UniProtKB/TrEMBL annotation, chains A, B:
Binding-site residues for Zn(2+), renumbered to this chain: 180, 460, 464, 505-506, 636
Signal peptide residue numbers: 1-25
Pfam families hit by this protein: Alk_phosphatase
Active site per the UniProt annotation: 229
Cofactor(s) this protein requires: Mg(2+); Zn(2+)
Protein name, UniProt field: alkaline phosphatase
Naturally occurring in which organism (per UniProt): Rhodotorula paludigena
Amino acid sequence: MVKSHHKKTAAAAVVAAALASTASAQTYRRAAACPDLGCIYPPDQSTFVAGQAFDIRIEVQAPANGTAPYNNGVPSEDFALYIGGKGAELEEVASFYQIEDPIVEKYNFTYFEDLFYEANDTATLVNVHAKSYRHLTLYNPGKYELKLQYNGNMETLAEWEVLPLAEKAKAKNVILFVGDGMAPSMVTAARLLGHKSINGKYQSKLKLDECTGFGMQHTHSIDSFITDSANSATALMAGHKSTVNALNTFTDSTGKGYGNPKFETIFEMGRRINNAKIGIVSTAYLADATPAAVCTHTSQRSQYDYIVDQFLDGGAVAYNGVPQNFSWTPFDGVDVIFGGGGKDFVPKDSNKNVSKIERFQDRGYQFVTTNSSLFELDHSKRALGLFGEDTLPTWVDRHVFPENLADFPAWNPENNTFTAPSTDVPGLKEMTLKALDILHTRSKADGSPFMMMSEAASIDKAMHVTDYPRALGELLELDDTVRATIDRLEELGLMEDTLVVVTADHGHGFDVYGSADTEYLQQAQTNDTKRDAIGTYRESGLSAYQVPADVSPQNNTVFESPYGKGFPVNWDPRYTAAMGFAADVEQYEDFKIKTAPRKTSIRELETGRYRADPEDSPNGFYMSGNLPTSGAQGVHSLVDVGVYAFGAGASTFNGMQDSTQIGQRIAEVLSLGRDKKGDFAVCKRNNDGKCKKQ
Amino acid sequence: MVKSHHKKTAAAAVVAAALASTASAQTYRRAAACPDLGCIYPPDQSTFVAGQAFDIRIEVQAPANGTAPYNNGVPSEDFALYIGGKGAELEEVASFYQIEDPIVEKYNFTYFEDLFYEANDTATLVNVHAKSYRHLTLYNPGKYELKLQYNGNMETLAEWEVLPLAEKAKAKNVILFVGDGMAPSMVTAARLLGHKSINGKYQSKLKLDECTGFGMQHTHSIDSFITDSANSATALMAGHKSTVNALNTFTDSTGKGYGNPKFETIFEMGRRINNAKIGIVSTAYLADATPAAVCTHTSQRSQYDYIVDQFLDGGAVAYNGVPQNFSWTPFDGVDVIFGGGGKDFVPKDSNKNVSKIERFQDRGYQFVTTNSSLFELDHSKRALGLFGEDTLPTWVDRHVFPENLADFPAWNPENNTFTAPSTDVPGLKEMTLKALDILHTRSKADGSPFMMMSEAASIDKAMHVTDYPRALGELLELDDTVRATIDRLEELGLMEDTLVVVTADHGHGFDVYGSADTEYLQQAQTNDTKRDAIGTYRESGLSAYQVPADVSPQNNTVFESPYGKGFPVNWDPRYTAAMGFAADVEQYEDFKIKTAPRKTSIRELETGRYRADPEDSPNGFYMSGNLPTSGAQGVHSLVDVGVYAFGAGASTFNGMQDSTQIGQRIAEVLSLGRDKKGDFAVCKRNNDGKCKKQ
């Protein structure tokens, strides 16, 4: 398809030739989803659920210098986008939608073309003309063609697809679990730590292993093959690829965190169409990328203030006091939101002294801050739970090293700040089960469905600082939560109406490659002899995590874990799994669990470079890392991640798929697609926010 | 189950207590599958296809010294194994099978209990009494219990399962592709190199991505969670976990490569029951573990001579001149065997001057040594193809750097040795398609099914020496081969009768975590600035392997690869994938493809330690590795690997499974299980080796 696009038009050939001279421009890009001087958002290859709302934006760019300047940096004043069903005659977009043509925005930006340009501090200036068309939709399934005409005879082409309407809904409700950063290799390692095998056969398994639908998904984003958690969560929750740091928007070239072309998430669609009750649970701070991706829109995931406002008021709220000049899907707030990140809900300084907690309370939300108070909630009312100032403590710290809890600030009711030591903090399971109770009760009250996103965030956060045992503890807690959630759904008789999907947003380079005799390693005196403590193949042996410290791993007894079914019997055995290290900063490795959460394995030099910190693991051996030494953390990786589905519609997720298909297939299972006749976007709403059917 | 075994018997409690004092004995094990002083093979948790042949062996061990000596190192003379259906009264095994009790073997062995014992050179001596019962089977599906009684009141218990008979065969033929070492992360990376994506959507995909049955399998072995390729291939081809280095046997404590307790492979069963035509294809030397696992039996995969003999004569041949004193499944040779490894077919020295090539020819095999002669083969006759002395050249060397072919010795007809430069060498696709032609023709002649194993061996071999691009080239060649094979099966009208399963035997720690600007890296002068060339997240950018060298990766044209559909357009772009490195030796990394195959990244010091060799990558940066410096290669990893199934019965492989279930499920799809009535083990054979039905 696209091949012929670019081969059949003379204009495209011109552009291709121009780009050929900038073949080196890979390190940094002029603009994402914008291979030519003319850009269309949503870009070529976009796929929509029928009736899904989105903005259109077109840009014409002209570099003034650099390797491929155009027309002295002056873009054409005259440019227009044409759209139509594939094969039909194309129509100008304002005419197609019977809307007014917006005013042209004019601005410029600079970028470095590659590392040599950056080293020489030589930026390229680009002038831009742009237009945005807001809050549009396409109802008719099939292919669409788009053509941006600019600079005389230049053209940028795109092809979109609107997915077929589902014949009928297979499920009413959905629970989407995200194991942030959960690579397949980490699932395997978690099974090794949490379950006993005898002569090569596991005596129990992960709940994930029992999934009735199983597949894998490709996680890369529009502009890069390694994704961050914002745009990958966007793919899962809205069915669109985007660019690094972007939440449910395409990143335009303005450099601004608001006003970028947006698209509707499946949660927003569920609310709009079915008045779905929406729940968000995360062990991260709640303004973090994955929880934010449920219903917020910004090209800059760091806009925490803006994100929290959208949880309550939807995607058309003011940004930092600047009103947004567009309409968007009405959204009157999530029903349940539990997690960390109180920091983004309390006033930070005297200039911004509005507590968002009070704003939630004014809108009828119950407010809780402890595990105990979680159990006193009224299931019929909305609830905000902020169980810590920042990311919540990990399962390992809550269960194995509870003395670390004091370092996690929690709510101090005496002065309404997050400054008290954390003592009474829920985990993913407690938050998820309580959120389910509330969603179920509220859904039952008016017959509406519910949609929940629950994130095990610190799988990723622990991996970033190479704290592997804590990452695996979080993964086991996720598995335990999935098991408990499905048990609860079955008790409630909801499993036949509910789809449960467990997946990751990306991986981390990780694997287990042997075992380490940590006692030998600690006593050995040289780097070489320390590395001799690693046993590979036959000497990797059996999992020592499934026997008490004084029992051989070869003992075939299945011991009960003091931490519950599916967790290690011993978190700190002499023979640990030798694991980790595929995309990491430097470190000293001793293969032992850190008794306190690892903040980093490196220390910063005066030069700004980071070097392994011997004090992090005093008896460890040196590993050099394979990332730039200018960075302080490990990074994400390319690997496809698993999709583990249960309940109604689970088999929809079998086999290999793209990350965007997760969102699209959830929409298919819930039958969220609408043709024009069935659309509610233009209907009037009742006071309760529910849309009157036409 | 097992839990109660070990809790309910007083004897087990005694043993557990004894083991508790040897809790440290993880690095090395007294014996695999032998947690107590009494050992049963097949061990606890074994699962059989109904009618599958196997040997039983029992051992009683007594350590004379070390941390847990027993009775001054004297094992009891009096020991017996009891067997019966679960819940039924157990019967002594000789009586159960109405066979004679074998003579007791007596011997001893030594081992180190852990790294401290090894450092002090303090071995533990173990005396053993043992018995082997040969060529048995179980016909009735269900659970079986076993009890080894020894040393007075000591007991070792085991539970076995015989799988239910299939209701009917879903497929007649099977082709099992093994991507040796193919971790899921490598499949993802191969897709990135071989296929173009535009705005995050792939324009074409791997054939593996189109599988109609998809799952993952756990690869660990009996005695260790990191497997080698012998026992993992055994699980795939016979449905039993074994121990490192073992092929279709359990490893007893004799230390000998022959006479260990064997079990029948599904290929042997197919031949015995259906007179199946059997094909073996590998890019490795043919005596290597994966091809050997089709139909040979030894606890030491390095017994190449013994293995080659078994390809022709089955598992009861003499070992190194020593006759085997047991009966085994009649096996009159594979029908097709194509690969490398001529070294193991020609006389090595004057003492052993029998050419195995002549032995094959005497038995009616056609013999070929070049790609051209492959196409002259008579499809109705058996064929032996030896296309090189050792492992065959990789796809990358055959297609991108053909000048390297001269370094791969091939057949020299002038002196009947493998000493000529390789010029005319087939790849996996050519060998597999020709093997299919022969199997199909021979099967059609007598209405029998065919079974083929085809291995992309150098995925693994390149990973061991951290030659990542060559590993990915082999993976893309495998994918291309799977595509071509399925096309051919469809042409032949065989796809409805044929199951195609593609899987791996284990993974390698591997992932892609960014891109590398190799031009910047080459020019940078320090380790730190070289590492600055690595771009992560947004700066990872797009795959530069899918555009010509002078075109930006952002160009949306789908270029045709000079190497064919599904391969890179450019193997050596400026912006490469930054990849690798999770269980590696030291190296200097420059992220560029090596123009000659990487033999190793390290050099040996006088101390016997291995250090990164700067000459391997003169402009690279140093990476320290995370394995013992006493070893020269990367190792395998834990990660579950993918199972990609096509054709008849493909959905049988959906979801999570154990490696042994691959073999068992192939047997199920082919309906190889037999109850006593349907069994042919005791039948007379015709001269053509076909079993007369009773």
